[in-house]
Amino acid sequence: LDAEEGAALYIPRGFAHGFQTLQDNSEMCYSMSTPFVAEAARGYRPNDPAFAIDWPLPISVISPRDLAYPDFT
Fold first, then answer.
1. What pTM value is reported for the model?
2. Which of these, 7, 50, 55, 60, could form a disulfide with 72 (CB 3.0-4.6 Å)?
């Protein structure tokens, strides 16, 4: 995805997803189908060994909430 093409990616409700920018000063915008409720949020760590995601770059910025998710078992 890049600014020149103006493409978008649709992620269906309930699908786990993560984002990594590959260029400095990138911006990522997204919409949600319902209002965000922090207490209802759940997820997986992007570095969870169960998923073995081969990220293009090392993870350099991640929220404390996302770091706190337990291992997926």
1. 0.69
2. 50
Instruction: Spot the catalytic one: 10, 30, 44, 69.
Output: 30
Verify whether residue 30 is a known catalytic residue: yes
Looking at beta carbons, which pairs linking 42-48 to residues 24 or more positions away fall under 8 Å? 42/69, 43/16, 43/69, 44/16, 44/69, 44/72, 45/69, 45/71, 46/18, 46/20, 48/72
Neighbour-count burial of 19, counting CB atoms closer than 10 A to its CB (0-12 exposed, 13-18 middle, 19+ buried): exposed
Res 18: pLDDT: 85
pLDDT band at 56 (very low <50, low <70, confident <90, very high): very high
